[in-house]
Amino acid sequence: MDFNYLTAITFLPVIGAVLIAFIPGLSPRGVRRMAAVFTLIPLALAIIIFVSFDRSAAAAGVIQFEEKMRWIAALNAHYHLGVDGLNLPFALLTAFLGFLAVLISWKIDLRVREYFGWLLLLETSILGVFLSLDLLLFFVFWEIEVIPMYFLISIWGSGRKEYSAIKYVVYTLFGSAFMLAGILSLYFTTGTLDMIELSQKGLAMVQSIMPASAIFFFILTAFAVKLPVVPLHTWLPDAHTDAPTAASVILAGVLIKMGGYGMIRLNVSMFPEVARHYSLLLVILAVVGVLYGAALTMRQNDFKRMIAYSSISHMGYVLLGVFALGQVSLAGAALQMVSHGLVTGLLFAMVGLVMHNAHERDLRKLGGLARQVPIIAVVFSIAGLASLGLPTTSGFAAEFLVFVGSFTSGIVPGIKVYTILGVLGVVVTAGYILWMLQRAFYGPVLERFDGTPDADARERVYMFAMVAGIMLVGIYPAVVTDVLKLGISPIAGMLGG
Amino acid sequence: MQLELLAPELTLAGTAIAVILVDLFVARKWLLEGVSIAGLLIAADFTIAMWGGSYAPLFNNMLAVDSFALGFKLLFLGIAILVILASIDYAARFSPFRGEYYALVLLSTMGMMLLAGTAELVSIYIALEMTSLSMCALVCFLKDARSGEAALKYVLLSAIASAVLLFGMALVFGFTGETRLGGIALVIQSMSTQTLLASPALTLGMALLIAGFGFKIAAVPFHMWTPDVYEGAPTPVTAFLSVGSKAAGFAIILRVFHSAFGLPNWLSLEWGLVFAVLAAIGMTLGNVAAIPQANIKRMLGYSSIAQAGYLMVGLATTGLSPASDVLGRSGLIFFLASYALTNLGAFTAVIAISNRIDSDLIDDYSGMGKRAPLLSLGLTLCLVSLIGIPPAAGFMAKFYIFSGAVQNGLLWLVVIAVINSVISAYYYLRVVKMMWLGKPAVAEAKAGKPASEARVTTPATLRVALAVSCAGVLVLGIAPGYVLRLAEMAASMFIF
């Protein structure tokens, strides 16, 4: 490989951040353009990789665009990046939302330099998490993400922003503390930090010295906080609600996906035996998350908070799909994450627009906006319908795969019952999404919102880009699932499902 | 007699005298710093020249020149250079005793360097006292009530610690009839387990040694002096104390326990566990007590107690691992290097900021991000490193030291340690929050002066010191390979 695509994708944003921070006399306009350039190039490179990715059956489980170099000899750690079918869609999604986040943030005028600096650093860290194949490198990127998010929420957020920011940090660090202990145990028992090697050799290497289930749960804790899985979810509504719009988009769009991705990449593929053993417990947690999350969403009156809560329910489907442990359900879970990234990203962007243009986020005071801001209303409706899983949107394809895959997976006892319970969540989702649409956009037109500006040209660009993504995945899901399949089939092979 | 092996220490002694003389006869005071730094650099040069040479004992096996000693000497010299750079601006307050200040810093450094090389109980005691006494004088250099109280506390408690230490040494000497560490090890290894357990002298001696040395490294429960002395002492001295004195303490603990009590295995297991328990208590207590602190120097004092706890994980690993395994020691050395850079960076920023706003209260750091963006960025990086978040050195250091601990069955301790890191995030980030989220100019408004959002200017020397520390923090955090290899080399100790 002549050109290190993955290194370029990962580190261009942070180079942009450093330039933005240290070039003297840069105008806010210049800062924004610079940020746009340094996120657009990674997006272009990610698309090139996605297009030229080898989709033949022989490429199943093969790492492509691999870059490997000794990093710390004393720890046997490598600078190791690569894509297989599992992480490529997430990398592309991150690059996509990273660029759109810059467009979404165009109207930020408070401490512009710092803002875009942190935003770009955030993108690098998330890309690094998805692309690294070395546990130490993975963990380094995983931890770096905390700092920019802390600043983004606490400086440019709203409401109880400082509280939400520190809550986010403490939850994340708490989770990663356990992950660190898990990684150290794994490193000690196996002597390697190579994620691919670890998953190929599987449990056989670990069995001897420490109970593998302990390591499994240490690592799972971090991902369960991030996804979030229900008893550990309370940071999410606060952080999502109080973050600035672009940070909410990134947070809901890709950041919480790091949890689901980690579960597949580390927990399921490195500990297939343990995953089988505890799958019932996690499936139950998933169903509880789906229903409890949906019920909580129903009760919200804050526009943004409502969407935040809906994520908890939707991530329940991911957990269900992952720990149903079937090939189709795993692919469904991954697709659900990609789809949710686009859909919820768009929902948050639209809510941000409504808040910015109408200066109101209380659903009890909103109403009839469809007349004043038709474009926002239409796009929001599309996103809402995608969120409740209407056919031809990505939400349908993803949830359908999760349910079919879980229902037919023979590994977890009683999975059929749990899947049916999970499907009930869709009904509640339909309820709250339609009710939310009705409360905000339909009903009697309110005079106080007369003259509320609709989306401008730049805003239309990112709206339609996301809608196009949602439709593309909805109508022709194979564009993503063909790739996902290559990453997931070796894992499913180990599970024997 | 190979006197040239003492060249670094002799250079420092000469420089200290030269500094005092220059202070007497020359009016241009910047020469003081110049001479001191030149002396330190020459000493570092000698030390590097000796690196990798054959191990040689000096003065009837009292001093060792092995890579362990040389590694630590380099660390102390680096610390001293950064401390002097950070002091230049501050030292104007010490006039007319600036010369004495630098001389004392140099002498204290020399004591630490001797300490790293001593392999015999009596010279250990002498080197330790040399370090402590110079440090006592430095603590009271501000000559106000706070500083005096701090110095008195330090003198009294350090005297008690020395007495305890001496008693421990006497017991060990009485039990083995040897003062050389290698000799003690030979006597202990020649005895049967029954003989060793028959008399409490050895166990008691070791316990007293731990107590005496524990004072130096601010290990709980011998940490009571730390917050008060850190708060009262001049800030550059606090930085020196928190880094140099602690590193010296760990160096000598490693040397004594590894070379004298490293074998038989059950004995090292025993003290290893003692350190493991002290580590767990130390980091928990340090972190919890740091949370409510309003004064940043006091907060960093408690934080250094917690960091000593993490460092003791390395001691515990050394005790629990086989004597030939270097992972515990190299982890400790790497952690010390990273902690030294991080803490010096943090204190340098504190000196620069406090000097301008005349306050050490965390509340008064409000809005610093606007008034001094680069200083705040540096301090933020150092605090992030203290939490242990990548890409800063603190993360790599924790990862390395904890990986050694996990390998030797200390997973429980590592779990306690990582949870402690989460607790610590809370108070470190409070400072970060103040700097970047708060409104500027609280301090001036309180003092009745006109509220100002003026930028805080920083003297060049402080900027250099901060830049060096921050660059070091990043290098150790991103590409630690080279320093890790040095640490592994420095972990090998010669026992005679």
Write the layout of secondary structure elements.
The complex is a heterodimer of chains A (497) and B (496).
Chain A: H1 5-22, H2 28-52, E1 64-72, E2 77-83, H3 88-104, H4 112-131, H5 135-144, H6 146-156, H7 161-190, H8 195-201, H9 212-226, H10 235-242, H11 245-255, H12 257-270, H13 272-298, H14 303-324, H15 327-358, H16 369-372, H17 374-387, H18 394-408, H19 415-441, H20 457-475, H21 478-495
Antiparallel strand pairs in A: 1-2
Chain B: H1 7-25, H2 30-50, E1 56-58, E2 63-65, H3 67-87, H4 98-117, H5 121-139, H6 145-176, H7 181-190, H8 193-198, H9 201-216, H10 225-232, H11 235-261, H12 265-290, H13 296-320, H14 327-357, H15 368-371, H16 373-387, H17 393-407, H18 411-437, H19 442-446, H20 460-478, H21 481-490
Helix pairs in contact in B: 1-2, 1-4, 2-3, 2-4, 3-4, 3-11, 3-14, 3-20, 3-21, 4-5, 4-11, 5-6, 5-11, 6-9, 6-10, 7-11, 9-11, 10-11, 10-13, 11-13, 11-14, 12-13, 12-18, 13-14, 13-17, 13-18, 14-16, 14-17, 14-20, 14-21, 16-18, 16-20, 17-18, 17-20
Shape of chain A: globular
Secondary-structure-derived class of chain A = mainly alpha
> Which chains make the largest contact?
A-B, 33 and 33 residues
Cα shape of chain B: globular
Order of helices and strands of chain A: HHEEHHHHHHHHHHHHHHHHHHH
Q: How would you name the oligomeric state of the polypeptide chains in this document?
A: heterodimer
Q: Biggest sheet of chain A, in brief?
A: 2 strands, antiparallel
Quote the average pLDDT of chain B.
Answer: 88
The helix content of chain A, as a percent range, equals over 70%
Helix content of chain B: over 70%
pLDDT below 50 for ≥5 consecutive residues: which ranges of chain A? none
**Spatial extent as radius of gyration of chain B:** 22 Å
Structure class of chain B: mainly alpha
End-to-end separation of chain A: 35 Å
Strand order of the largest sheet of chain A: 1-2
Provide the spatial order of strands within the biggest beta sheet of chain B.
Answer: 1-2
